[in-house]
Amino acid sequence: MTKTENRVAIVTGASSGIGLATARALKETGYRVFGTSRKAVTETSDGIAMLVCDVTDDASVKKMVDEVLREAGRIDLLVNNAGIGLVGGAEESSAEQAQALFDVNVFGVLRVTNAILPIMRRQRAGRIINMSSVLGLIPSPYNALYASTKHAIEGYSESLDHELRTFGIRVVLVEPGLTRTSFEENITRPDQPLSIYDTIRAQVERQMRSGVEGGDAPEVVAQTVVKAATEAQPKRRYTAGKLAGQGRFMRRFLPESVVDRNIRKFSNLPG
């Protein structure tokens, strides 16, 4: 997939942040880009056609895919970027809130992927890029449910890649670290907060907000997506940014006890 002229890309969650930066970068690379958002966007941005798509709704996903096919006739690249966060103690979220998180971050990826796979199989070509996270590689206190969704995406993507290679389709992971996006817009808080966690939860939120403000620009992740999309022989996963690279190195090469101490130190938790 090194030649991008006339190739068609879909980027979910493209109204802002990493999704918008990715849509713009793919457009500059030569793709015809369709971005999606849960709510209607009245104008296209930089030649990007914006479509409404709620990844938690099968009918909405089908309508979006059908519209892309009517307009472009093919789909060469899917970037599953839509997602939400959740900060809090694991026991502070109800099962319903956890299910809602998984419905966007995991089953949303499944819905959109399943909708475009018949098209890519007919084409005998295609690439799917699933937006994971450094938290798909390492644990993160007070991000247990969010990290669980990204661990699920890691396992799903690696397994799916093996299934689809015989059809000329590759599935690739992109793993950002902390990225300068709107913290408040993308975060969810527990629906059953417990006072015993108030102090540490507030501390974690402050730390994350500070990390986001000093994190990588969305364009760093976007350029990683472009690389993952255009390399003829893609790697299974691409880390995006310094922190993500450090997390991957730590998980792969350091003893578990060292990883454990570093995670507690980073989270300001007692040893």
Automatic annotation (TrEMBL):
Coiled-coil regions listed: none
Keyword hit for Oxidoreductase: yes
Keywords (A to Z) from UniProt: Oxidoreductase
Keyword flag Oxidoreductase: yes
One GO MF term attached to the UniProt entry: oxidoreductase activity
InterPro entries: NAD(P)-bd_dom_sf, SDR_fam, SDR_oxidoreductase
Top-level lineage group: Bacteria
Family, as annotated: Belongs to the short-chain dehydrogenases/reductases (SDR) family.
Xref: PANTHER family: SHORT CHAIN DEHYDROGENASE (PTHR43976), SHORT-CHAIN DEHYDROGENASE_REDUCTASE FAMILY PROTEIN (PTHR43976:SF16)
Protein name (database record): Short-subunit dehydrogenase
